[in-house]
Amino acid sequence: MEDSQSNNAWKFMVMVSVVLICALDMGSAQIRYSVPEEMEQGAVIGNIAEDLGLNIATLSGRKGRLVTDYTERYLEVDLENGLLLANGRIDRDKLCGPITTCVLSFQIVFENSPEMYRGEVEILDVNDNSPSFPESVILLQMGEFIAPGSSFPLESALDPDMGTNAVSVYNISPNEHFGLIVETTEDGTKIVELLLKKPLDRELQSSFQLMLTAIDGGSPPRSGTARILITVLDSNDNAPAFDSKVYKVSLIENSPRGTLVVSVHATDPDEGSNAEVTYSFSNRVSTKIQELFSLDPRTGEIRVLGIIDYEGASSYSLDVQAQDNGLPAIAGHSKVLIKVIDVNDNAPEIKVTVVSRMVPEDAAPGTVTALVNVNDRDSGKNGQAHCEIPNNIPFKLETSSSGHFKMITSDMLDRETTPLYNIVILAGDSGSPPLSTNKTIQITVSDINDNAPRFARPIDTVYVMENNGPGASIFAVTAFDPDQGQNSYVTYSFIDNLIQDLPLSNYLNLNSMNGTIYGLRSFDYERVKNFQIQVQARDAGVPPLSSSATLNVIILDQNDNAPVIASPSAQSGSAGVEVVPQSAGQGYLVTKIIATDADSGQNARLLYQVLESTDPSLFTMGLNSGEIRTARGILEQDSTTQSLVILVKDNGQPRLSSTATIHFSILGNVTEIFSERSNLVTNPEYASDINLYLIIILGSTSFIFLVTIILLIGIKCKQDRNSPEHYNSPGMCYGLDGSNNAFNQGPTLKESLNYTGAGEIIRIPDTHHYSVCLSPESAKSDFLFLKPYTPPMTQGQC
């Protein structure tokens, strides 16, 4: 109880010492604490935030964390108050063993920050172990004639504590025959031997019982005891003596088995069997050492038996004894000190602590990504290790301290170019030959929204056939965003556009998810031939980025308009009527068919042909010009009434057509004014400019002609009504529609033409047929009149 209280009091007195070393190395600092071992879990070691001058909110908000090189986590940091705490009981003897200075290294790092703070906690030894002897009872045999001054090695006490807490004093119970010799070796080990101060006399005292006590230097001190039982023997009173009390040799590590280390030799001044010497290791040589070395009991040769590893032990101390064959046997003792010479047989060891396996691509240069520790178990040049990574990556290593490196970003990162880095860390030593090792770590670059969606074609042309079905897809735009996740999620929308002063939404709809464009109504080439729209692609990043593409939409013509015959025009729903002079010769231009088609291209290319003709040999039709000319001169026996059914068709697929019927009257006394029509401009280039004038001229001429005919017919009909042959008169008049009504006008069809100056045209029904004939009295009166065409010819009719 008193020991515990005094130990706690000692711990309380050993206050935590803090040494803060500031270095101008990338804003890093180093702090050192000294604490006693055996601290309880949660015990405060120091205030990291206060000692480093850090704000508590900064320490917590920047996600600071403690990184160590040890598998077991001995330390932890409370981010709420900045205290460095013991995470559990720290046993210095278990952690560091015989190492004089026991230090726990740690680093304080922050995510996505180049700042790093290094620290060390020195674990001070506490006198928490008492010395103990390997055996509680030590048995010795001594001849009665052993001379005073002889010494007998005793097994040293073991104490895991270090420094002043280790064994410092040996005591033996008071007696007149024996004392102690305590020597300290080069490695600090205390060797204790039992000294015979006064000759023994078996007859006076045949045995002795002594108490050996080992006391450490702690405060308070601790101790351990062992009993020494000495039996006094008679006779053989000389012990063998070695040539050297200490043999010192050097041995290269990894020496093969059987290598001679040293030969020890001892002599015994006795004679006979008392002088015969046998060599062996003393019981102070551990089993582990006896597995590494062998000792020939006859020759005293020590040879290599196992694998000698400098990194396991840099030196060995072997206690050998030479024992004679006397009764009782007496042994002499010597020590063999073996120094192991290091060779470069260990490659550097790399230990990597990854601070963050995922680094954002906008991380600033200097961001710490990993801590690298390189250790070489060899010594000297063999243990001088260097570390490097490839030069062609945006990362570099900076030396933090000996054997400690930090890997930081050296340039800006771009996930779209390189999303993943497999970084090979190469460490090599300076031995001969040099050894090296490597380790690969993987760093992933996380995405930020630094790329706007990109269209494959920022300007594109879309061809849409007119009369498209409403709701059908006409085109699809696609934009690619090289970012990742929601940063690459693209939606589409129209940038406000108008088509013929109407909102774009009246005509088109855009699927915002896949960029498909749908037509909401049918397009009419004759109304809209092309228009332009703009589509925007926008990602879902924060903030969002966008780009746009321009689409030139071209409406393709479809053959959906039949040709419209503009000239010669019919009046009052009747067929066209033309007058041909009987004197017209071959090639005489009778008339020209002028037709238009609202379509374009091949759909508007018109061809003309004759479907039906009263006399196929009399007239010819220009296939492309629409000109009707006489194929020969007009003969007297030719009928004075000729009819042509004209077909006008376009070149579309499928072809559309219109027909018209034209009646010709061959007159013998028509002035040559008609011949002037043959000289009218027929160039299609000018047809659109003169159509209106041509229609007016032809309409006026026809009107005057018809008025004259009507007046003459009226006079003639009045005369016939006064005649008894009125009802079967050859000159009987009928209306143009086959009734007594002279002109029964039907409705006309009108539509707009699509060429400049066209005005309006009158569509001529294909089913109206007209006949121009001469009355029997024409030989007397030379008057012309119109009568309906009746297939069966009767007397008095044409």
Outline the fold blueprint.
Elements: H1 2-13, E1 17-25, E2 28-36, E3 44-47, H2 48-52, H3 56-61, E4 65-68, E5 75-78, E6 83-86, H4 92-96, E7 103-109, E8 116-124, E9 137-143, E10 151-154, E11 167-172, E12 178-184, E13 190-196, E14 207-216, E15 223-233, E16 241-242, E17 246-252, E18 260-263, E19 266-267, E20 277-281, H5 287-290, E21 293-295, E22 301-304, E23 315-324, E24 331-341, E25 349-354, E26 358-360, E27 368-375, E28 385-388, E29 395-401, E30 404-409, E31 420-429, E32 436-446, E33 454-455, E34 459-465, E35 473-476, E36 479-480, E37 490-495, E38 498-499, E39 502-503, E40 508-510, E41 516-519, E42 530-539, E43 546-556, E44 564-567, E45 576-581, E46 589-592, E47 594-596, E48 606-613, E49 619-621, E50 627-630, E51 641-650, E52 657-667, H6 684-721, E53 749-752, E54 760-763, E55 772-774, H7 778-781, E56 784-786
Parallel strand pairs: 2-8, 9-15, 17-24, 26-32, 34-43, 45-52
Antiparallel strand pairs: 1-2, 3-6, 4-7, 5-6, 7-8, 10-13, 11-14, 12-13, 14-15, 16-19, 18-22, 20-23, 21-22, 23-24, 25-27, 27-30, 28-31, 29-30, 31-32, 33-36, 35-41, 37-42, 38-39, 40-41, 42-43, 44-47, 46-50, 48-51, 49-50, 51-52, 53-54, 55-56
